[in-house]
Amino acid sequence: MNEEMKSLQKNETWELVECPPGKKPVGCRWIYTVKYKADGSIELFKARLVVKGYTQTYGIDYTETFAPVTKINTVRVLLSLAANLDWPLQQFDVKNAFLHGELSEEVYMDLPPGCMVSEKQCQKVCKLKKSLYGLKQSLRAWFGRFTKSMRAFGYRQSNSDHTLFLKKQHGKITTLIIYVDDMVVTGNDPEEIKALQNYLSIEFEMKDLDLLQETGMSGCQPVNTPIEEVDDRRSTSGYFTFVGDNLVTWKSKKQNVVARSSAEAEFKGMALGLCEALWLRLLLQDLGYLSSQPIRLFCDNKAACDIAHNPVQHDRTKHVEVDRFFIKEKLDDKIMELLKI
What we know:
15 strands; RVT_2; DNA/RNA_pol_sf; single chain; 7 helices; Retrovirus-related Pol polyprotein from transposon RE1; 6-stranded antiparallel β-sheet
């Protein structure tokens, strides 16, 4: 608790003020957890001050709460590029990340239990200047603070994924992707990676987790799921995409309606796969590794390939014209090529 209070005071998280008329302070409490090592032994005891965010009122002490979340597909693409191009991968963690977020709303909080203050200040409340764990807007405030710092250091956000930050200079690129308070840095500019690490250490209290390690799932034992499959005659659309020789994204989803033919079912799968491939194309363009070759889309249904290449009207496919025109437009623009396998 003492270490947490010192961290809060060092960060200037709040100031003691008289509670304004009409304002109701939110409560807070201490949360105690035990962190264990991989072998089961105790690593440390943790105490964290958490705000009772469920007592907040929308429009009074918070408004917007949205903050972007990293797409796992973006992480896979970065790992694929790092593997193919022999880029180093560094992982960092921000200590008490939410405490760095700057609040734009007026939020008042009761004095924390066990807080040592003078007798004159016992009736005062804490006016929060920085966010705390438990606040509804804490994640948004932290991400806004981090984005501001990254932009000040010359990085820009990718249009394909707002949690991906890029910096290109002297023909080299450095990328950082962040998930809440964990981040991965990679690229082909070692000097810039080192400079970024030093800059973030000054801006925030960081933990360098060094090179990424394996997840330890190689020895897992897959088992069958004991659930009976319901036969509702609906097809399952699926696709998987490669960047180079590496599988980076995949998805399967049962279609909402029953397809009247296998060609119709394939059209829906082709459209879903093409949407994913177009997004990957934009992401690789941001990273500066866009190929001049068209996207190669493979399909195992000859009828679907023939209809996509030729503007033929069919009674059995006229209700999927939107998908057909979408695919045909990309074929005509030479953005993709459709191949039968």
